[in-house]
Input
Amino acid sequence: MITFGKIKSVKGEITVPADKSITHRSFMLGAMAEGSTRVTNPLMSRDTIATMNAMKALGAEFIPAENGFVVVSKGYRFFQEPSDVINCDNSGTTARLITGLIAPAGVYAVLTGDDSLRKRPMKRVIKPLSLMGARMEAASNGTLLPLSILPAHMHPADIKGETKSAQVKSSVLLAAAQIEGRTSYTEPALTRNHSEIMLKSFGADISAEGNTVIINGGRPLTGTDAAVPGDFSSAAFFIGAALMFEGSDITIRNVGLNSSRTGLLTALASFGVKFELNYYENTVEPMGDIHIKHQTFSGGRIDGDLIANLIDELPLLAFLGMFADSPVEIRDAHELRVKESDRIASTLYNLSQLGAETEEFEDGMKIYPLKKEPAQARLRSFFDHRIAMLSILMCKRFGEKVSVDEIQSVDVSFPNFADILEQTEIK
Ligand code: S3P
Output
């Protein structure tokens, strides 16, 4: 078991690693586009390296350049057949998005992943892509990785999304961009729109109206510049830390502030939390600085369409329930059951280890304020990067009586989490 010394506060100015979602997409679009794409400040983590390797397998070149890469490619019309199985490692985004990216390319490819990813649902992308003529076979009666993609002649379609998932939407859009004709995708709730923003900047004919995205596909995409902002989902751990550690005062610079990602700020504002945002001018993706100080706050109920805009921050919000003045309740969040771990189960396991009173629902959880400091707690990461980072925060909050079984999994999204946290620590 791993322990850490107790810290009092987190203070200072930090930058967090680059956005994982935007890095995946810049590597994928760099490979789909003709010519050179300059990717500045990409996240180099286990997840995004899986995407880079997949794009190399299709024939794209990644030439190291200052603070990033130049991706050189002949474009999607010239994708080569991968000579081996593509391993998506722990990355759901890689697996779901490249299923759509490869399906119309006329090549045979097989995708697999690690123990966690091979348990996560793939039917959600297989179904809409099949409606567009894709041919694929997958394990466990067509639901799980490994998944084979067979050459197919795909056609445009009007797709009604059944899952509130940016991965599913993006998978359809990456296929549709390559298929001659008009495809529309209507999502059940607005999810992150990085794919739409980026497809446009690579020259796709794409527009959005309400919850429907329309793309006129089949035109070549052109290489461009892609600068990756800091990851709001990584910044969120420091927003949370400021609220957990008394006396904290944190400024996080260069953070992506796309409103389809910042649902945590909406939720916290509804809990009475005060913070300052300073938006930069003229950026492709909204970005800026976040300033937050320690303060007391109430709880509340978070549900409905907002859930899609803070999906990766829900475990953090649940942990914050221990430090609020009243319970935090999260509902309509079934999707948490199929993330890197079952995040309702893994969050509640750790919260009850810490002595918090909790309730479990099929679609969420309710957490009551912590009545006394935990006596002893043995936390588990469930090999889930976000649960591992929350466990590290708890170890530092309560000192050596709290331990965690494993923290290597932070490499998936935030390899230098412990270093950045250390920069801010006041003992
Ligand atoms: C992601 C979308 C989300 C999120 C994941 C990254 C993306 O998944 O949980 O970490 O980059 O599109 P879903 O869209 O399936 O909820």
User: Anything to note?
Assistant: Residues 21, 24, 93, 165-167, 170, 191-192, 311-312, 335 surround shikimate-3-phosphate (CB under 6 Å).
